[in-house]
Design brief:
Blueprint lengths: L1 E10 L2 E6 L5 E5 L6 H13 L18 E10 L2 E11 L5 E4 L8 E4 L4 H5 L2 H15 L3 H21 L4 H42 L5 E6 L8 H10 L1 H7 L10 E6 L2 E2 L6 H13 L2 H8 L4 E5 L7 H12 L3 E6 L9 E6 L2 E4 L1
Amino acid sequence: MQIGWLQLRDFRNYRTLSWSPSPKLNVLTGPNAQGKTNLLEALGFLLTGRSFRTSRLAEVPHWGTAAVAVAGELRRLDGTVTVRRTLERLENGGWRSEGAGCSWARAVAFGWHDVEVLNGPPALRRNFLDGVAARLYPSHRATMGRFRQILARRNSVLQRGGAGADAQLGPWDEQFAEVGMELIDRRRRATAALQTEISRVYPCLAGERHKVELSYRCSVGEAAEPAALLTALERHRREEFRRGQTLVGPHRDDVLVELEGTDARVFGSRGQQRLLALALRLAELLPITEATGTSPVLLLDDALSELDPSVRDNVLREVEAAEQVFLTTPDPWPAATGGRWAIHGGGLAAA
């Protein structure tokens, strides 16, 4: 899949922009705070209807504007689709997103925050894995929404307590176990798909043979049936009432990332962690392509910083093999293939 053209109106610091990027590698250069990351965000918004930087729509519009428009043409072998999305300010001060997307459009985005997936709290690793699963399995995001609702209702019963509370938990426990194991199953499959690819990708980027292992750490171990989650809930029932919250389930699971048998949270330099985080994103490409039949667009924000020169060359070789790539860098960087673009003050020109 490729983006043939892009048009923006009042998106971040872009008042207007019309652009036809290269079908392969696009290197976006320029000083910091000029709009490189904003342009990647707009590309991701076109493809997915969401921002990879924020969940707050109010942060996206140009200051003082009441509407945002993003449009573009998406291409693949069997045809093209024109996608148009808008953001409009409501009378209550909120923002409404509208526009039909494209069922086969996918984007994989890498940014500075991805390093925190490795050394941050478990919630960041769960969010990362859920993002991968959502790109592989379209129903995963809706299932996540259902699970959060069930979890909130169950926690409400635990917090109220009192006579009959134990019986009230019964229906919620059954739904929690059923939907929870559905999430766990997809997370396990996503982890397995990433494991296969990162075993190839990371050594290619690092230029050395390294063993990377991903393992999904689940509160019910290797069990695959809802009954196992029900049993775990019953085992923790007394403590859950005391604390007023659900103590086991997919909302408590974690992903362990090991490099040469060592937890990545305590391994190596910032550059090594950054390279491993980048490898995790690149490991998504093939599984998504196989699952959807369409290659995702790759959005890489300052992916080359803090890397040794030889490793940078390895990264470029790897990403040049992808379908369409957008790579930002504050430094001049030659594009072996594709195009190079200079960004300054929300304007873009061929470099």
